[in-house]
Amino acid sequence: MKNTIKFANWLSRWNDWSGIMRISIVTALFVIIVVLFGLKKRKFWSKLSNNFSQKGKHLSHNWLWYDLFTTPTYCNMCQSVIVSGACCIYCNLYTDEKCLKKADKIFRCKHICDIHGASTSDTTFLKRNWEHKWIKGNLKLKSNCFICHEDDCGSNPTLSDYRCCWCLRTVHEACLNSVSNRELIDWCDFGDFKNIILKPNLIQKKSQVSSISIKDYKVNSDILNSSDYVNWTPLFVFANWTSGSADASLIMPHFYRILNPLQVVEMTKENIENSIKWMQDYSDIVEFKILVCGGDGSIGWILDTLSSYEFKKFRPAVGILPLGTGNDLSRTLNWGQGYIGDVDIEDILHEVIRAEHVKLDRWQVKINKINKKRSSEKSVFEKLTKNSNNSRNMNNYFSIGCDALVTLNFHKDRKNMWFPNRILNKLIYFKYGTIDTFLKECRTLTENLELQLDDKIIELPHLESIVLLNISHWGGGVEPWKIGKSSFPEPKIDDGYIEVFGIYSSFHIAQMQVGLNEPYRIGRAQKVRIKTTRCFPVQIDGEPFEQAPSVFEISLSNKVTMLRKNSI
């Protein structure tokens, strides 16, 4: 009580704004120092983890630092309670800072491939099962023991009971030591996700170099052909760490723990090429699936790469874990509008297993620039950014006009954002949409544009945007063809037709987003030609650019196989 009175008296002395400002500045500096210290420590642990992973013949742990554990956590080395420390994102082993090196040396991480060699004549090896990898303690509350079926695994306030980091089963320590059927305890069947895990007993190294890149591994086709793997459809997870609110960094450790780390891929050009080339090599005997964790642009990147490869028999089907801002293709295929923060990855993987295969039209957009002879006009376009590609693929939509202008302005702002956030992204979209409502920079669109649908010239009213839509959703969740009444057939994603509609202004877009107005429906076609006589902003699947006077020819390119979530 006395301390409280003293603190209140001390605060009463700060009765002017200068005192309040001093306290605010000191508090802000303290927070900044704590944040910078945490970032520095994470970088240190990341570098340390990389050094460990490059040592030795076997894959080492991949440590992720936590400043504060939100649940009671115990060090697997000294078994004491820890409030901060590191966790291996591969096998879920926990340690505090002082025990790290010792834990990394004593505890082996889960094997991502078979370290034994064998030939087809070795029948013992061909029939050999994979062993459980039991990790002690730090279980979820009310985990179910798969031996006695009691749901109190991990309930003791100590480092107790076990969990297999392959099949995810949990077991009491007493049951583990007393069960008579040792095969039940020793041999792992990979649990609920056995059909999508890249099973380590089927994977072999090409060399002795320690690597986490799939190109350094091969499938043992002898074992695959000698066993019953009819329903084995391994899943590759591609994650874009910059999509939306950059939530991939929170989600990916869960995939690493459940799946084989080899099948979880950070999206870079080299990683994508290596993984898809590897899938192509075994596409005659294995049917792969792909899960893209990102936005519409990330999905387009994967589909473009897939289209550049000729698969022998099975072409991978693509599912979506939406992390972007718009996520219109994800909404169309029932995967939702986007995930934020913690996600139940096991539920997602169950949905991928149950998902149905559907076809999606992909369209080719040919861009032929019109050369201007008058130097005065040419000088205007030299000041603008011009798209150098003469052909691009389109999965979702193509648009020219005010909506593309808003997206272009957003992308310019996005490059300078320190802390990407999906809600902040939508606010920036709203900001530029509001600005264009007054400026109307694309008000001369229809005066400088000619539209042809299946070689027929279309007369247009005054519009500020033309949209070609291949899917049911557009503009972050709007379903244009379901607003109001339409005399056109219901659009489909695999019918070889593309729907075309117009937008009167940026304010018209806002009205459509809340269902107060419908689009100006122009028609549907198998082939579209657009000719412009001045520079306009253009976007293809949310990727914007400014394009000088050009002829755009849009026609069907191919069809790809997607995974559509079953709505239950």
Secondary structure topology:
Blueprint: H1 2-12, H2 17-53, E1 63-66, E2 73-74, E3 81-82, E4 85-88, E5 94-95, H3 100-106, H4 123-126, E6 130-131, E7 134-136, E8 162-164, E9 170-171, H5 173-178, H6 182-186, E10 187-188, E11 203-205, E12 217-219, H7 221-226, E13 235-239, H8 248-258, E14 264-266, H9 269-281, E15 289-294, H10 296-307, E16 317-322, H11 328-332, H12 345-354, E17 356-369, H13 375-382, E18 391-394, E19 397-401, H14 402-414, H15 422-439, E20 449-453, E21 456-458, E22 465-469, E23 498-503, H16 506-513, E24 520-525, E25 527-532, E26 536-540, E27 543-547, E28 550-564
Parallel strand pairs: 13-14, 13-15, 15-16
Antiparallel strand pairs: 1-4, 2-3, 4-5, 6-10, 7-8, 8-9, 11-12, 17-18, 17-28, 19-22, 19-26, 20-21, 20-25, 22-23, 23-24, 25-28, 26-27
Helix pairs in contact: 14-15
Summarize the structure.
With 568 residues, this protein is an alpha+beta fold. α14 (402-414) packs across α15 (422-439).
Helical content (DSSP H or I, runs of 4+): 25-40%
From the alpha-carbon coordinates, what is the Rg to the nearest angstrom? 28 Å
Main sheet characteristics? 6 strands, antiparallel
Name the overall outline: globular
Kindly, what is the distance between the CA atoms of the first and last residues, rounded to a whole number of angstroms? 59 Å
Low-confidence stretches: 51-57, 118-127, 374-388
- Overall residue-averaged pLDDT value: 82
The number of helices is: 16
Give the class from helix and strand content and strand pairing: alpha+beta
Number of strands: 28
Placed side by side, the strands forming the largest sheet appear as: 18-17-28-25-20-21
User: What percentage of amino acids are in beta strands?
Assistant: 15-25%
